[in-house]
Amino acid sequence: MADGIIKKLSEDVVIFIFFRLPVKSLMRFKFVSKSFFSLIQSSSFINLYLYNTTFRDEYILLKRCFIQENNQYKTILSFLAGGDDDSLNPNFQDLDVTHLTSTRNCDHDQLIGPCHGLMALMDTQTTILFNPSTRDYRPLRPSPFGCPQGFHRCIQAVGFGFDTVSNDYKVVRTSIIYKVDYDDEYPEERDRKFEVYDLGIDYWRELDNLSQQLTTFCVTHCSQMFYKGACHWIASLDIDAYIILCFDMSSETFRSLKIPESCHIIYGPTCKLALVHDTLTLIYYPYPEPEIPVEKDLINIWFMKEYNVYESWIRKYTIRGLLIDSPLTVWKGYLLLYQSRSGCLMSYNLNSNDVREFNFHGYPKSLRAIVYKDSLTSIPRGSEHTKQVYKF
């Protein structure tokens, strides 16, 4: 019967209707008829669905940790949808992904994305690639590169994005090799390593020609973002000389963007990257000291109106007196989501100045959040020896 209905409707009409549906509803149509199944599974429809998001809602993926009796951490992913009153409500049941992440700490993991609807949950050892809409995930092969005995490898930055030239997803890791010296408070840096993982061929490789492109730098924790074909991080060249460090996924080269205000690695303010209406956004916020001086107790939000043009930076918002641990993301273009010092998810309305506390909390400093829209993007399986794609 459904096939008969499709024949009466043009494919354009069916596609127009499907574009308005969330993935959860769309998946039900796969089993209504063979025609629906073939259409929804086709690569052309998946690509069209990815880029036609006008009528679909924004969701929030929230990662948080809880400490357990054995001093190990449990990691939970929450899938949240917004209400008309800017409330947040569960869209699916929470997922316990502790078995996929490190249980020894909760402040070194990174939630990166979305890139074509895919996200990466990464720590110093593991990378999990997943689609929050289809609930598919794939653990990636660990990096085979270590360091000699007597040395220590410190992961400085991680990134995930898409290379339009090779038509493949990539994972990036930068690290510093230190000589182990337990008597020295500041161990000696001996080398820098740059690793790239190509998802399509399931292969890690080291890049040997990048050390000369960089001087001393330290990447700010949880500052990464993929935008305009490049991974972006907030990085310091010196104790108070900050830049936006960029790694182009196609050319595999570094470059940098100047920021509009100075930062300080110890005393603040510090920075967070975000995207607001597809515009590169920089959020300056105070270092979370026990007591913040009045002159430091402000948050400045800057927009780069024209990408890679320093003169196009404009300060859009200034917020005073907001007790914040760190910003997480900007939702709907006007709601700044942040975590409080006690580990609660909060929002600040940039239009009305209203503050709201949500009923979601975790261990202090463990919250991560990403704004995303539904997608049908599948996770490439790579070679025949690649780990399988699983369902959450």
From TrEMBL:
Superkingdom, according to UniProt? Answer: Eukaryota
Q: Which InterPro entries match?
A: F-box-assoc_dom_typ1 (IPR006527), F-box-assoc_interact_dom (IPR017451), F-box-like_dom_sf (IPR036047), F-box_dom (IPR001810), SCF_F-box_component (IPR050796)
- F-box domain residues are 9-49
- List the NCBIfam families hit by this protein, alphabetically: F_box_assoc_1
Which PANTHER family would you find in this protein's record? BNACNNG10540D PROTEIN (PTHR31672), F-BOX PROTEIN CPR30-LIKE (PTHR31672:SF13)
Name recorded for this polypeptide: S-locus linked F-box protein type-6
What is the protein's species of origin?
Petunia axillaris subsp. axillaris
What gene is this protein translated from?
SLF6
